[in-house]
Amino acid sequence: MIIGIGELMGGVLLLIGLYNPQFKNAAVLLLFPFAVAAFTAHMAHQEYHHFYNSLLMCVLSIVLLATDKTFKIIL
After folding, report:
1. What is the value of pTM for the model shown?
2. Which of 15-19, 35-39, 63-67, 70-74 shows the lowest per-residue confidence on average (mean pLDDT)?
3. Phi-psi region at 46: left, alpha or beta (left = phi > 0; alpha = psi -120 to 50)
4. Are the CB atoms for 28 and 65 separated by under 8 Å?
5. CB-based contacts of 74: which residues, under 8 Å, 6+ apart?
6. What sign does the CA torsion over 10, 65, 70, 68 have?
7. DSSP code of 68?
8. Fewer CB within 10 A of the terminal residue: the chain, N end or C end?
9. Among the residues of the chain, which ranges form H helices?
10. Does position 38 have pLDDT exceeding 90, yes or no?
């Protein structure tokens, strides 16, 4: 239930981010752990025909954050 609520919140934030870009980064950061977990789960269960979608989401999350001029992670 909690995972579904988190994914729903991320999806809603992503839709809001189309009109208000500051929410887009929050949505991507919220959805990225779900994409990594889905990729890991499909690889662990050897469901190789399903892992491409989650791998694509992992890569696209990084691309979205990397191409945003206002997003920075300072370590």
Report:
1. 0.79
2. 70-74
3. left
4. yes
5. none
6. negative
7. -
8. C
9. 2-17, 22-44, 51-66
10. no
At 28, list the tokens: 């991507």
| pLDDT score of 42 | 84
**Total number of residues shown for the chain:** 75
The 3-state DSSP class for residue 39 equals: helix
Largest distance between two CA atoms of the chain: 39
Q: Are 41 and 3 in contact (CB under 8 A)?
A: no
Q: Running DSSP on this structure, what letter comes out for residue 1?
A: -
Average pLDDT over residues 10-30: 89
**pLDDT bucket at 72, cuts 50 / 70 / 90:** confident
- For residues 13 and 25, give the distance between their C-alpha atoms in angstroms, rounded to a whole number: 9
